[in-house]
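Figure-free illustration: sequence to structure, shown twice.
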Amino acid sequence: MDVVVVESPNKVKTINKYLGRNYKVLASFGHVRDLPAKDGSVRPDDDFAMSWAVDTASSKRLTDIAKAVKDADGLILATDPDREGEAISWHVLEVLKQKRVLKDKSIKRVVFNSITKPAVLEAMANPREIDPPLVDAYLARRALDYLVGFTLSPVLWRKLPGARSAGRVQSVALRFVCDREAEIERFVREDYWLIAAILSTPRAENFEARLIVYDGKKLQKLDIKSQEQADAIKAMLDGATFKVASVEAKPTKRNPGPPFTTSTLQQAASSRLGFSASRTMQVAQRLYEGMDIGGETAGLITYMRTDGVQMAPEAISAARDAIGKEFGARYVPDKPRYYSAKAKNAQEAHEAIRPTDFSRTPTQMRQYLDADQARLYEMIWKRAIASQMQPAEIERTTVEIEARNGANTAELRAVGSVVRFDGFIAAYTDQKDEDAEDEESRRLPQLRADETLARQSVNATHHTTEPPPRYSEASFIKKMEELGIGRPSTYVATLKTLEDRDYVKIENRRLVPQSKGRLLSAFLESFFEKYVEYDFTASLEEKLDEISDGKLAWKDVLRDFWKDFSGSVDDIKELRVTDVLDALNEELAPLVFPEREDGSNPRICPKCGTGNLSLKLGKYGAFVGCSNYPECGYTRQLGDAANGDGEAANGENGTKVLGKDPYTSEDITLRSGRFGPYIQRGEGKEAKRSSLPKGWSPATIDHEKALALLALPRDVGKHPESGKMISAGLGRYGPFVLHDGTYANLDSIEEVFSIGLNRAVSVIAEKQSKGRGGRNGTAAAALKELGDHPDGGGKIVVRDGKYGPYVNFGKINATLPKGKDPMSVTVEDAVALIAEKEAKGGGKKPARAKTTAAKKPAAKKPAARKAAAKKPATKKED
């Protein structure tokens, strides 16, 4: 018997079924070792020696793997087919060597590009060894990320309090988000006018033509800058005669794009389906790992972490067969199409993302998939099919029109297109194609040269230039790929890190840099410019790729980097904080000193009128303060508009007086504390406080809103059955209504102030019908059922409890990490949380089916547990 190690527990049963009883498949659950989050894990003075740690949950899994290998004939490492997967196989092998269980056993490495029986058996028939250059590239990348983070972060804590950390890739990604914000702030709007005429042919067919030349001058977009200029041109055209100068019809072809890569899938799912990048990867992971298709378990798509754009020859052949069957022989090109990646630093060792079987059409699969899975599978299937179809044939017609009014002349142009053959558009169109289709829908009537046209109307429309848009998740990922920063498997993790550290916030699906993030980015650009340059970071990625190709030695790359980087850090340590603040005042002037409505100098203190405002660094981060402190105590939070009335109170965190309580006459103030902004009435221990609800920013808080928050909880009315009071308030887990010990969540903070008795009774009844977790013994509301535990013992359920969502397995309840969407939890996530809770001694797991192993005597329980060290991040991220 051979032991096969895969990453995800979701694959275990399926692959074991394909391989048969001569194999035992076990899961590593992603990474099994990581660098401890402390100094000394990478030691440059010791030739970049690295210390690895195994967390409790991974230790148990590795022990299970070691026991199985000890009694097996050989070991087959079948982790995912990417760099991270190669690294996980290497880690597992290193641990097993340390445990001395390998001896003379055979060791093989196989990769499954898709979880189907033919693909798995083909991979098993063609094993290889672990690829040393790929592992070296992983070690170099991990060491670089560690050295940057653990060398730079202490400098930030001393020179820029409030900044949590900086990273090699995340800092560059943060920079281009902040650079876009600076572009928006510097943008000056311009007015312009566009002029178009509605004309008709002698056959009474109307169409639109746009002005392109006036009095012999070719007009650019912004050339008509005033209403007077537009009115003069319109008046001339209102009295002009129009004649067709020329008609030109050109046939063109538009070719399909390649199948999806990781980044293009994330971008398309964002724009077409509204999925976040992390949601896209979660759904794609499930499609890859395998679904129950009418009693047969099979993966529906190939591996979803790839930047390759090519499909395997057999897949191309299957796609061409499916095209002929679904669309007709005319849609099949004479020769197969082949693609090459245009992305910087693209690695094309793997296939593009495609269906494992093109005969499984989206319509057929819909019955086996949930809504999100069905929509994503349909998009992948259609894009892959379209990539092998005939081009679209389009006829584009351009009509030039002369306008004459006495000595004044003008030229107009009308453009229209007709799709003569839809080709690949019959299957799939991306956003660019859809925009083109809008133009193609504008068909022109039959026009002839020298034909006279009748004027129906002339329209002059006013427009204003718009600043560049903030990045969406999709455009963020596209930018990362264009710059060659990071890799497909790191885009989602990079974005999540920026969010978790409060450097970036997602509002209306756009990335908005927060004050903390802009401070950090400005600091790095001012004092570590080289290390946040796009070209430098991309060139370092190229060196990592050369390591993976065996062209560079990984420690040589580390030595070159470390020599310059450590020297730069030493220089920064000598900087005075005043030097840092002077540089940030200059770099972030639009943010720190916004223009005032009265046009006065934004650097002058509005309270004392003589002091200069400047950035100050407090215990919890940066704020704006007056140079006349302590005589003048004016302060405000970074990013708030200047307080013209000078009523800010003392305090390094930017205390701002909003007004007085009408009943107590105490000051009501807006403050910034350790856990964020809050409202306070009065002073001392008796002062009443209220945190700002999610979605409320300090800039929008006024006296009225502050009073409303401080008045919570409010009485809604007495329950018609119990006669007990129902109240509405804001708690740790958001807005709620409360009746007789039952809490029910509300949809928004606004509802706290407006909810009536009937609605409150309904919400509470709905909560009670789902059951309460905890005190009365009934089960908490089930949010999502994940199915049976891979090791047996019962079902795993995600529930909503009194203290938030958690994973339930038997008597084990494992709380979800803060910010984790309970509906996005996968079986893999849940099993890892359960294992961690078990390791800590929490709860009692269900009884498993009896096995031979169960007869072994239980290990002696240690007398006392040592305090758990901080667990390093080991789970493989999207």
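We now fold a second protein in the same way, so the two outputs can be compared directly.
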Amino acid sequence: MPRSRPALGLPLAMIVVTGVMSGLGTGPALADPGTDGTLYVNHDVTCSDSGTGTQSLPFCTVQAAADVVEPGDTVLILSPDDDPYSGAVTLTRSGTSDAPITFTGAQPGTARARAVLSWPGSVPALTLDAVHDVHVDSLAFTNDGGNGVAVTGSKGVILDRLAINHPALAAPATGSGVSVDGTSSDVTVSRSSIGPSYAYGVRTEPGAAQVTVTTNVILTTRQGGIVVTGTSGADVTSNTVLAACATGISLDGASSGAVENNIAISAGAAQSSTCPTPTAALYAVSADSTGQVTADYNVAAKDGGPSAPARTEYSWGGTPYATSAAFRAGTAQAAHDLDGLGVTPGNQPPERSPLVDSADATAPGELTTDLAGNPRADDPIVDNTGTGTPAPDRGALEREDVITIPADAYPSSGVAPFDTSVKTDAVSNWAKALTYSVDFGDGSAPATGTQGTPISHSYSTPGRYLTRVTVTDSDGTSKLGTNWTTAGTATPPAAALSATADTTNGGQTDTGSARFTVPAPADAWEVGYRTLSFGDGTQENLADGAEQTTHQYPAPGTYTATLTQTDLLGRTTTATTTFRAADAFIPVTPRYDTEKTIAAHGVLKLSAATLGADSNGVDAAQLQLVTSNAKASGALTLYAHGTTRPGTAGITFEPGRTATAETTVKVTPTGAVDVYNGSSGAVTVDVATVGLQSHAQYGDTYHPATPARLLDTRTGTGGVHAPVAGGHSVTLAVGGTHGVPAGATAVVLDVTATTTKASGSLTVSTHGTSGSSVSGPFWTTGQTASAQVVIPLKDGKIVLRNGSKASANLVADLAGWYGTTANGSEFLPVTPVRVLKAARIAAHATLKLKVTGAHGVPATGVTAADLNLTVSAPSGNGYLVAYPDGTARPGVYSLSFTKGHTTANRALTKVGADGEIDLYNAGSVPVNVSADLLGGCVAFPAS
């Protein structure tokens, strides 16, 4: 029953993408196919379903085009980013025999189709409903359930070069890759691949007529590969079917037609819900169909695996036949059938295989090209045992000439203008004559040539060009080779690099995280690759074009980052930038209190967890120390556990007195801190964390202030003009005054009690919250005592409470505040070091102290120094004033001292423009002053 072969177009490879993308646009529109009769669908650009489907304004969805397509139109479905279209499509419009409607996914200028339809529902991804003269080609479909493509009540339909896949196995599998209902006729399914998980690969229903299934690869369907039921004129030709779980090809229900040139492959499989009949016959024709079906040139094969069981190859009219010889003897069919072969589905037959040149070229539905679009070729290495010239191979894939294009055949690269050539020394495995066509990719006409004569070309304009070398043998088999050729500019593209700190919209910053910016060079196309080395031993490869990337540094310090940019000609340019990783301040509601007695010359180890310093990137902790029950005079030294103990003092103490001081201590490398008692007697210490400095968390920057008095109850400064009675409090507004913004998160104050009428202490608390307080100075009757404190702010106010039984005048002096990054400073902790040792300062004299350019503090950009000041056994009473050199001396207290008592206090002090601070002795007697450097604040941003 010969019939004309389907007229099919040029081949394109197919891929399957299983992603889902929502369609855009609304409503049908009038089509405007333009002069070439093409309607465009492209949801990756500006599109509209209410437009006319032009190339400049395409439809967003396939359905929009299906609703308006006319005879002779081509619907071109574009997907530049392999971005599938989501939504089932139904076509109800028809073409004519002279002007069919075509839906295609063939991408212009490429040799492949892209997946365009993805639908998770139970309906088919594409339904052709009561249409005629419709061609669908070069599309891929994915569907979680139901059919891939359904043809209902239609005729004159060609489905060519499709890829149809379930994204995952289904149990039990349902639906068909392609289904043809009983009211459809003249339908061709060709050169398509149908993947696993469907119940049926291709299925026809009773009443269908003139259905051709040819040159397809169908893999591991659950109920049957090609199932023809009650269909007249069914031609099943040159298909490759992996039949692991059911019959590969079957005809029943009084079907008629031909089964030729097919390969059905068995595989080792166990019976399960998804694999119902793994031992079914590879080919089956029912008793009511045997009189109208011819079978020949077919192959019963195995997949080559050792687990493939023995299997019935044929079932003819209900009678099983184990081999092709038995089938031939019992039915007079299958005169040229083969069995006993190992075949790998999806691969062309190997050289010298019995499958090669052994099929029937006159079989109904036989095509002149195979699944991949390769022409039928005559293999000179084997004898022709089939019919026709050339005789085709069996199955969906043809054994082709192997054409090898040497790797060095392509043009070289150089600086434009330059001359080059393509070598014409490709090799044909079948010793065929070869011809060449070379598209040099620069807009010039393709050049042609023959074996042995190089094809020359000159590139005059800088650019990157895709050279396409097509080598064709005398049978028409082609090999395409591609290679990029670079006509470079005279100089390589310049590299550029900059860095800033990573700052959030809220104004906080991760001062150890750099945000690097790499702009696109003027000739970005010429850049081959770029590597950014961060200066800490790590690096990152960057993509093309403008790039931003962030990097978290492992510790504070100054790092030099280097961008190395290599162009396509191998030329290298570099750019560098420096970044200073530092710390941001994290206010802590004072907690993690630990009260311990330290023996004489003993060491108390405080773990990172105890200090709250075990979170990301903490480099230093700001601690408040309160000493009591001292058995002898002395000092506590704080330093990072596992490091050498420095000769510094965090707090001094003596018997019979309670002392308090805040200090900063570096906690790396272990996060733990050692507290050394330098006294000859035991002392009890209570420790609370009041803040953390981290290079890997978002925090606040420090804003050092010119020292200013906020409260003095002796003069009425701050709104209170009387001593504060014992047990009473003063509320002081800090935010919104003296340059401290209302949104400041914490404030640094020097607080003093003077004209004290009884011993006592001062407590400083955050207003508007409970549990957030620190100890101020402790005093004896008549003593003036001061301490520097850091206290979080909630509503901009603090509360100072006189803990004595009698009155005292209270003084509060501003040292600085923490808050958002604008004009702020980041912190660089250092290993504690004594930078001033027992320097004698005369009464009413000033000492200048250089605090920059050494010990880890930069020479420039320093805004404040974190110091511990100690006055040793003064011979009279008084106080020190610490302030930035080059500025007027403020009337503030930095450290108060009492005759005969060694006193220490923290002084987070603003630094003069020359890197110095001034220490003024406001007392009436000379004093010996020591200063320990704990860290420096540096102007932000960090680069």
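Summary for the second example: The longest strand covers residues 825-841.
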